[in-house]
Write a structure and sequence with these properties.
The chain is mostly helical. The chain has one domain: Orthogonal Bundle (Farnesyl Diphosphate Synthase). The protein contains 15 helices and 2 strands. The longest helix has 27 residues.
Length: 324
């Protein structure tokens, strides 16, 4: 039976409760509109996967310190800022089943709110003089921006090969997971080798996390109906890239024609999904996802044994087994 997020939280339940108090306080503003928006965000919190990585990585190495709470708040503030901005970029009106900030308060307010969250995260690190945490996070934000722009650039021509795809998701998604593990480690140790190893672990976990997201678009493991959202948005995900590289020229041109000109229509999204399934795109992406999972577990195996290590192992399996 798969482990639940509630079970995963148990080893760090006390720390997460304290974190949530501090995070809520960090979101507050004297501007009524901003305070209303941040309250809305706090009430609709997600799984808090990244703060969990921060606390578990810290506890893997040492007892949690005050700096660890700063690290967790920093990662969650910056992650939330990117989600608010992503919804504007993607013109998305839903986030975790609720209306997005831009849907309720329009794009201009959403962009400013995202900027506010970003600045609050940076200020938390600066005010506490945790410049090492700030350096790790700044690199992650840069990589995320580069990954997003590289994806936009390549999507126009539909010419992404696997290596470019890995570069995109390493920057867009894995960099933030790597940063969460890196700042978790940095909150309790100054050993740069350990911090770097923690970041490598987080990066591998983040790569597996993103490929699982890719698979959701195809109704992977009958979790739900195929969504076709990535196809609609002309995103070149791993199952599609593999398929384009392994079908004949006629089929390849047909897929590209659909994605370029007809991807808005469900009928054509389903056609592409079927072609991908028939040509091994799902199985290939699943294999690569498993490889990254195993890489993360191999890195984790080199750390000392304790309850946090067990929880991190379960968290990696959760990333692969999750249904949303």
């Amino acid at each position: 039976m798969a482990v639940t997020i509630k079970e995963l939280r148990k080893p760090i339940e006390v720390e997460l409760l304290e974190f949530e108090k501090r995070f809520k306080a960090a979101m507050k503003s004297t501007v009524p509109l901003l305070d209303k928006i941040t309250h809305y965000i706090v009430q609709r919190k997600g799984k808090q996967i990244r703060p969990m990585f921060v606390f578990l990585m810290a506890k893997l190495l040492s007892p949690v310190q005050d700096k660890t709470y700063v690290a967790a708040s920093l990662i969650e503030l910056l992650h939330t800022a990117t989600l608010v901005h992503d919804d504007v970029v993607d013109d998305s009106h839903l986030r975790r089943g609720f209306f997005s900030i831009n849907a309720l308060w329009k794009n201009k307010v959403a962009v400013i709110a995202g900027d506010y969250l970003l600045s609050k995260g940076l200020l938390i690190a600066v005010e506490n003089k945790h410049f090492d945490l700030l350096e790790i996070m700044s690199h992650a934000v840069r990589k995320m921006s580069e990954g997003e722009l590289l994806q936009i650039e390549k999507a126009r021509k539909l010419n992404i090969d696997e290596e470019v795809y890995y570069e995109i998701i390493k920057n867009k998604t894995a960099s933030l997971m790597a940063a969460a593990c890196g700042i978790g480690a940095a909150s309790v140790t100054d050993d740069e080798r350990i911090i770097a190893k923690a970041q490598r672990f987080g990066e591998a976990a983040g790569m597996a996390f993103q490929i699982k997201d890719d698979l959701f678009d195809y109704g992977y493991q009958n979790i739900g109906k195929p969504t076709g959202i990535d196809i609609k948005e002309k995103k070149m995900t791993l199952p599609l890239i593999y398929t384009l590289n392994h079908v004949d020229k006629s089929t390849r041109n047909h897929i590209r024609s659909i994605v370029k000109t007809k991807s808005e229509k469900k009928k054509y999204q389903k056609e592409v999904i079927q072609i991908v399934k028939e040509n091994g795109g799902i199985e290939y992406a699943e294999t690569i996802m498993e490889n990254y999972k195993n890489e993360a577990l191999d890195i984790l195996a080199s750390f000392p044994d304790n309850t946090s290590k067990d929880a991190l192992t379960q968290l990696i399996h959760f990333i692969i087994d999750r249904h949303s």
